[in-house]
Amino acid sequence: MLIFGFAMAAFVVLAAAAATGVALFQPDRYRRRDAVKVLRIVLGAGTAASGAGALLVKLHEMGVV
């Protein structure tokens, strides 16, 4: 479970970094717009996944799961 969490965090960081690089340094405005959309999705999914992971850990510590 811990390895999956690290892999997920690494994926979110790498995808966010790639989308940020494209959004900042791409001369084509349509690619920049698409990169910003991807960045919003990745950051939203990353924070939702980390929140769900934290909830599962807390429930496991309490003995519910």
Give the key terms.
single chain; about 60 residues; mainly alpha; 2 helices
In short:
This protein is mainly α. The protein has helices at residues 2-25, 29-62.
Descriptive notes:
By secondary structure, the chain is mostly helical. Helix content is 89%, strand content 0%. It is built from 2 helices and no strands. Helix 1 (2-25) runs antiparallel to helix 2 (29-62).
Write the layout of secondary structure elements.
Layout: H1 2-25, H2 29-62
Report Rg: 15 Å
Number of H- or I-type helical stretches: 2
* Sheet with the most strands, sense and barrel status: none
Strand proportion: under 5%
In which range does the helix fraction lie? over 70%
Order of helices and strands: HH
Transmembrane segments: 6-26, 38-57
Keywords: Membrane, Transmembrane, Transmembrane helix
